[in-house]
Specification:
mainly alpha, Alpha-lytic protease prodomain-like, Alpha-Beta Plaits, 3-stranded mixed β-sheet, 3 strands
Length: 315
């Protein structure tokens, strides 16, 4: 394939095994950094009179549980039983990402509740934990930024609902760290001024809305992947284009089935061939057509079935 069609052909694409290993390594690294963050957020929340820091601890705890779920899922996919799950573990990844989204929504509800209470009971934030929280959030801007970028690169290489959910979660965590640095810095710079009493709830509500938006995107994409919907019209036209190019190589097109399930595309073509052709000739045509469809619809699993009748309808 030319460089214009396939991008930079000088760098060979990662193998599926290497991609899965990268997914597990990135998820494991993120889980370890989140465990350290959990211990730190609990420490500085205990030493400060700041509901925002307690909210930060609560969100970090739920984020840790979400990443633990993601890591266990990716580990199961990487080392899973391919005989028992012949079509892969894509649905498991989607269920996992929906679980992560559910935990993000739980975080949203907790933050909103804390912010409303803080608006009704404004007061100054103080204690050594404020300084410690500022330092730790500053460090985690760099750490979460690095993990977020790794997830973003991997997401562009593979269609994985779990990696997408992790990327969104780390994007939220990065934004949370930046806002915490700004808010805690303002609290320290303008200590005991009355307007600073409302920094905690305002920042918390901003984070809550961002988290809710990310969670709804994750839920929507995961739910669609579980519904076995047909491929988009653009992909359907590409399939018809490949069939038109091989119009003289088969006798009758009996049917086309497509579905997007578990983050993967599946295409089934039911073709009838002339009775006087040998099986070797038919197989050669099938291979050429399959390669053409796979080249047009990237990453699709294509099956071409020689048949003399249309496929049975599915209930």
């Amino acid at each position: 394939m030319s460089t214009l069609e396939g991008g930079n052909s000088l760098k060979p694409p990662d193998t599926p095994a290497k991609t899965e290993a990268n997914k597990e390594a990135i998820s494991r690294a993120g889980l370890l950094t989140r465990l350290i963050a959990l211990l730190l957020t609990f420490s500085y929340a205990m030493m400060a009179n700041s509901l925002a820091l307690w909210a930060d601890f609560a969100v970090t705890l739920i984020g840790f549980l979400a990443l633990l779920t993601a890591w266990l899922t990716i580990r199961a996919v990487t080392r899973g039983d391919t005989e028992a799950f012949a079509f892969g573990h894509g649905r498991l990844e989607n269920v996992s990402s929906m679980g992560i989204a559910g935990m993000m929504i739980l975080s949203f509800l907790m933050i909103v509740g804390i912010a409303v209470w803080k608006f009704m009971n404004p007061g100054p934030s103080s204690g050594f934990g404020i300084i410690m929280g500022l330092a730790c959030n500053g460090a985690y801007v760099l750490i979460n930024g690095w993990v977020y970028s790794r997830n973003l690169v991997l997401e562009r290489k593979t269609d994985s609902p779990t990696i997408t959910a992790q990327r969104r979660l780390y994007g939220y965590q990065l934004l949370s760290n930046l806002l915490m640095v700004v808010s805690l810095g303002l609290i320290l710079a303008f200590a005991n001024q009355q307007w600073t009493f409302y920094i905690d709830p305002v920042v918390s509500l901003i984070l809550a809305l961002t988290l809710l938006l990310s969670a709804t995107k994750t839920l929507r994409s995961s739910a669609l992947n579980l519904l076995d919907g047909a491929l988009e019209e653009r992909d359907q036209l590409l399939i018809m284009r490949a069939l038109a190019e091989h119009f003289d190589d088969f006798a009758v097109l009996h049917g086309i089935r497509t579905r997007h399930s578990g983050g993967r595309d599946y295409i089934e073509l039911f073709l009838e061939f002339e009775a006087d052709r040998t099986m070797g000739e038919v197989q050669e045509t099938i291979e050429h057509l399959r390669e053409r469809v796979e080249g047009l619809v990237r990453g699709a699993d294509v099956v071409i079935m020689p048949t003399r009748s249309p496929p049975a309808p599915l209930n």
